[in-house]
Batch of 3 targets.
Target 1
Amino acid sequence: MKLTIKSFLKIMSVFTIAVLSQTASAQTTDTQRFTVTVPSTLSITGPADQTLTHDTTNNNQVFAPGSNTANHWAVQCNSGAGATVNLRTNTPFTHTSNSVYKRDAKLDLAVSSSDNNGTSAIWTVSTASDQTSFAGSDNVAAVQATSSQPGKATLALSVTFITNTYSTLLQGDYQIDVVGTIAAN
Amino acid sequence: MDSLNKKNQQGQSEFAFEQIAVALLLLLFSVQHGSGQSVEIRSREKAQELTHDLRSNLQQFSEVRWDVHNSRRDEGIAVIWSIDSFSTQSGKQKYLADAGLNLRILSAAPNRAWQITQQSDSTNITKGDKSATVSAVCTEYGEATLGLTVTFSSSDTSVPAAGEYRTQLVGTITAP
């Protein structure tokens, strides 16, 4: 009887191992994780330098960006809170060889294209227009656009040379530098 | 007389144990060859990662291999892979991106047993479809290695928000 029980236990052990090993090799589901890292991006790219020749009238002279977005400012941000773009000149138009001669500069900003969130454009203009007033010691003109979520845009900046009286202009070149900055909100 | 009874009892016990042992062996045989534990699915590669190039809305992972085994001689299986949209959390804001799946057979034995029933699919977040599924069937005993390509697709109209977007590919065998 002892031998028989031993034999039975042996058979049971073999059976249990066999079933367990069979169960361990069976697998009806498996998973695999996929991760995409989207890096932060925050950029602003200005168009090429612009020149024009005065038409010799008292009319203001306008550097119009036109419809070609290559002449616009390209901005992009993928921060969750969006970004703010400032376009600014710290001087009026100033004669390149005689800084006594100046003319005010005016900036006008529009969003020419923008990513949208399905219902509205992501980028909007928050300060559309500003101009210097060197007579009033205001040498700064600045405009601004903002976004509140990730997205890219092109911004059309129109720059105006305010002539006043053409006859009192010293001949030569008048310049301003427009500086664009972008910061995540 | 007593010793005769003892012998009889011992003989009956031995016979009963033998019967149980035979029954258990038969059960083991049926488990191995029946509808029990003889299918298997495993992803061969580990978790996959890529960095978005910020130039294209569509980003593609390298193809990954999944091994599927069906040792049930007379019954087929269906294999389904499903994936949810990619998602990432930034503060209180959750961002999603579409996930795409493409399936192909890399190797199969026997060839006749394996067939793709749904080759590709992708989620469509804007239409509320946040799950994509591809599938294959094996009609008899066999094994195969299948290739799955996962894609990440952000909206055409927006730069994807910075962050780590994750999703999980789930492969499941279903048997009749």
Target 2
Amino acid sequence: MITTQARNGFRHFLSLAVQGSLGVSPEARCELEPVATLEEIRQTKMVVLTIATYLFRAIVLIHFSPDLRTSEFFAKARGTGTGDMTGQALQDAIAESGNICCGILNRELSAFFPHIGMSTPNIIDRQCAAHIAELDCSHIEHFRLAGEGAAPICVSLCLCAYAEVDFAPDLTEQSVNTGELELF
Amino acid sequence: MMNFLVFFLLGFTCCHALSWLRNRQGGAAFAQPIAPAVLVSQQADAAHQPDDLDELHAAHEQQLQILEAETNAVRAELQRLQEAHESELRRLTKHDTDGRQVAVSSAKTQAETIRHLLGVTKTFERWHDDMNVLIRHNRAMHAKNDEFAQIVKQVVIVALNASIEAARAGIHGRGFAVVATEVRTLAGRAEALSKDYRDNLYENDLITTATFQDLQAGGKMIVGAVTGLDLVNRKILGALGA
């Protein structure tokens, strides 16, 4: 129910969104590298966000581990000390980055689906992902962030379609402006 | 056309009248000897000229009457058309006013409905609060289950120690060894149940979160659509001058 060009479009927009939100800076290279299976993803927590229209919903899972490496990355990205980027502060920083990421994705999709809405982020345990099949997704893809400016995180894109989903985006578009900022 | 005819007749009449007067005056001013036959002829003509003038005058009068009648008919038709036009204009103006009033009234009713619909955000806030309660509840169940799993682990260790102590007691500890083994078996079953329960809790976390987020995002989609409707309605009200 999700055409090939629509899948390419989702992937392209997710790539733009990640580049604009999950790099150490907007200029730093941050790309999506496919990961074959969920089992290859080792992070222990995940930020969950949903974008919904009446035709489909896109669930974005941002996998992360609240470890030193992740703390250092987000401390550098935010210009704070690593000591300040732990526990709840780290979770809030990742949730906010995820929110910006989905904001960009939401904005890009809104050009094709004018009636669209986005949720606020929630953080759940990585073991919840083992039950992703329960959501009856039409299409699931997993990615690792790659590049010198990429956060040590992985991203899963889960698409649930309720009708035929098709759109033809311009895949050469390289806009990485910050998306809408949801308050949470 | 009628005017042209009137002027033509007037011109014609005037020319004849002038010619007739000239002939009369000329006869007086330039009295010359005229042949008797010509004189007779001229006298005959002169005798007929008043008759011609009367005829022309009568014709002219008749034409004037016809023209006047036609003018009156045209005026009456014009009057009738003007009245019909004014009547239609009044009807259209009333229709336009009524239609505008209906449109303004409808747009205002719609604005009120939209205002109420936008209150649906309160429902989404309520769902959000309920979702947070559910998540807190799930976390509490996770914590209790983790504690339960710790207890089960301790029971396994205790049962193992009991088995060791039963073995030390030799023949007197046989009965105790059976009990210890049974406790270990029960602890193993409890551990499996705890793991299964934890797995269900993770599944519950995912489904709850995904469902809530779908409601939340869908709610924002609806609010966005209603806000768009509100914008269009405001433009309509603005165009209607209301």
Target 3
Amino acid sequence: MAYGFATQDIQLDFWAEEELFNARSFPILIAVGGSLLALLYMAFPPAFEPPDLSGFNLELIGLVVLMLLYAGFLEQLGFIVATGLFLCTGFLVLGERRPARLGLVTVALTGGFYCLMATLEIHLPQGGWTGSWQGILEGLL
Amino acid sequence: MDRFVARHSGGITVIDGILLGLTTVLTLYNLTLVLAGCAVGTIIGMLPGLGPISAIALMIPITYSFEPSSGMILLAGVYYGAIFGGSTSSILINAPGVAGTVATSFDGYPMASQLRQPGRALATAAYSSFAGGTLAALLLLLTAPFLADISLSFQSADYFLMMVLGLSLVSAFASEGEHLKALIMTFLGLALSTVGTDLTAGVQRFTFGRMDLIDGISFLLLAMGTFALSEALMMVLHRRRSEAAPTIPTSGLRISKSDIKAIIPTISRSSVLGFFVGVLPGAGATIASFLSYGLEKSLARNPDPRFGEGNIKGLAAPEAANNAACTGSFVPLLTLGIPGSGTTAILLGALIAYGIQPGPRLMVDEPQIFWSVIVSMYIGNLFLLALNLPLIPYLARLLLIPRSILVPLIMFFSMMGVYLVSFNTFDLYLIVLVAVSALALRVLGFPMAPLLLGFILGGMLEDNLRRALTISDGSWGFLIERPITMVLLGIISLTLLSPLIRKLVSVATSR
């Protein structure tokens, strides 16, 4: 229904209103078809089985939040730092406690992926702080 | 006959074309490129989140320094390798890197995880892919000049109905009582495909004023969000079930004689079906694999194990069909200049970047490219089998990765696969939203494959409907104007009504 109403927000040029098939036509067809199916679904609901939500816990919520944080900080922190933190935290959230495995996978994957992309001349985010650190290092050296 | 062949082959016969292709491909340099393409494609395709589109996109800059024919040979190898690699990740961790291998996971993953036969599943996939690719390459070699004419004879109305048929067949993939849910998901996919700019009118639709949505939702994002990423979250949600120790094949990498006997008819049917579906612009590996899966499912009588629970035919059919369709999809690309899928659209971009205009003139002006790509397809399939079968035990070790390591890895590759296409963090937020929504829908029993199919076909469906309606001056009479459209319409009606018919028949027989 919401999709159907939103089709009216599609801005058409004045001549397009008279066209046989304009930018609104296909979305309207989808909205009509979808609404009919939804009505059928409500009229003949399938047998309802309560979903198994036994695993719905802090791990799941933690991972979703972690992904959102990764999206938010990837370009600020740069690929290496953001991915390292993302992977390490992800492993910890899911119960990985062996430091060797945790560190090895994180470093190998982050470094390996970065090198692969660098070889292919695909530039991953360096992070907003890289420039200032480079400046400081160059100043010291 | 001679005139026909000559007219369509740019003055050379098919035999001459094959010889020209062999001369071009059978050099150390080009053979190395085929091998490298297959190896790189397999590795990239195996990584959840990175399918052929990403693999080819990553390799295109490297090929700019090559001769056009060598570049296309490498990219064709990457394409095949990535499809095979995608099948491997579909089977082992239920995370298809590409829509064309989604149907592979229906029975491949249960065979590997529930039946504890990962070696058998991977070997079946390898042999089926090889057989499908080989049969399709032969079909292509024999029929290439004629196929262009067949494709050209299809009109917009036929394309439109072919796509509606593909969408209506989703009911064949849905389990008993879930047909309506599958159709609702198809419409959701169609609705999502309308997000972005309508290229014909230049009008923005459902972008809510956001620049990030002007180009629409990326197919890769939706595929990764609904399959790989939501699968990773599903593994966390169904924690106990997923923590069972995986079985790694140390032996049993061969399939038994009875298995071979069972799948030979399936592979033959699926290869032919896959090839011809792949030839149709806009169809491609996804529809081919779903159609062949649906066909085998409908042909099977009392299958054991059932489809969706590790049936070998349910694995062989989509594998043979998707590889055959990959070969077939080169026909509209090379002869008409029309990409049959997202992957061939990228290949079209690569050809244009080389300064070559694909289309009916390609066979005349650049026969070397046309025939070398065709010949490299067969050689690529040989290399894939030689490369991947011995590596199966090592590939299968992916199953040994514990959940605590695997889930964040899938999350990383899914998110990075999407980011590498657009370099836009908005897509990262969007994929998380898609994955969480997909998780909720999967928990409620809504299937994801129809959504993806609806999304892929949405744009093409709209274009062909627009064209058909314009040609018929706004009349829907085009649906019943010609015999082919009437036949297609009849099949669509039967497909849509089949759940109702089955129910009526079962009620009648129970009385």
